[in-house]
Amino acid sequence: MPQPPKRPRKPAPAAVKTAPNKGELHPRNRHQGRYDFPALIRVSPELGQFVITNPYGKPSIDFANPAAVKVFNRALLRQYYGIEHWDIPEGYLCPPIPGRADYLHNLADLLASDNDGQIPRGENLRALDIGVGANCIYPLIGHCEYGWHFVGADIAAEALTSARTIVQNNAQLAGAIELRQQGNAEHIFLGLLQGDERFDLSLCNPPFHTSAAEASSGSTRKWRNLGKLDPKRKLPVLNFGGQAAELWCPGGEAEFLKRMASESAQVADQVLWFSSLVSKSGNVQLLQGWLAKAGAVEVRILGMSQGQKQSRLVAWTFKDAQQRSAWRDNRWR
Length: 333
Description:
It holds the Pfam family Methyltransf_10. This is Ribosomal RNA large subunit methyltransferase F. Belongs to the methyltransferase superfamily. METTL16/RlmF family. Its main location: cytoplasm. It catalyses: adenosine(1618) in 23S rRNA + S-adenosyl-L-methionine = N(6)-methyladenosine(1618) in 23S rRNA + S-adenosyl-L-homocysteine + H(+). The protein is α/β, with parallel strands linked by helices. The chain has a single domain, classed as Rossmann fold. The chain is built from ten helices and ten strands. The protein has helices at about 35-45, 65-80, 95-110, 135-145, 155-170, 210-225, 245, 250-265, 280-295, 320-330; strands at about 15-20, 50-55, 60, 125-130, 150-155, 175-180, 200-205, 270-280, 300-305, 310-315. The strands form two sheets. An eight-stranded mixed sheet has the order 1-9-10-8-7-4-5-6, with helices on both faces. Strand 9 and strand 10 (about 310-315) form a beta hairpin. Helix 1 crosses helix 2, helix 3 (about 95-110) packs across helix 4 and helix 8 (about 250-265) packs parallel to helix 9 (about 280-295). The longest helix is centred in the N-terminal third of the chain and has 16 residues, at about 65-80.
């Protein structure tokens, strides 16, 4: 008796890959080349006490000192983005700004690819920052660079209080950044989005580790690789700080991405392009499989580079080219 033909498996959505040369930032990134420390100190004098001379005879800061990293970030935000007032509670994530800016510039290029090469700018463009954190970095840079409006979401009330203080103390941000708490730690998009709202982008820097111990081990390994692990010196556990929800979650990055892929399909009508950083290269293929199962139409894998660090930005959409064109005509023009 003849067997019925097997149903073909649904193929993974085609992925478009791009990558910069090693060590290169995005061409529009303001942080090209070496920093002008005298200029930074002029706009933020407190930075002066943290400037050191590195082994190459160049001015730098001690990136093993959390206080130095925070003051350095404050100076960068003031000098490059006009953010006069910025602070975060002790122990919260103090992210490297050049890499965060690169993420946003790549997302701008992604939108331009659906808009005849022109980057959509201004308040009609709405972005959703999943895990905005106490630092509020993505909305600050995204609004400064492109005039986009943001909703920043987080599960931690203290983080949102800090982000809200930053927004309230910088007049140019009034009305541009809304902060919203995700009340259910088991969800990412569900229960967060209102039924009638639309976002052109979502972005996320997911928790990479499965536990606090794994995060601490990763930091120790990094310092050893950089030749800075001095047994006589007490180094911080995490030089860039970070709370539990910022750095680790059950199942780590892979489990978070799996949940994000699944939930994104449930709010597919409300977001044009979803995106996330992916720290571990092996998780990219896993994410592609989960997105295929969820029904994503297109996936973009964008390589990013800062110094010796290589990372990946994965973006996906549930809308085909015709639907994206209609979205553009309705919202951006």
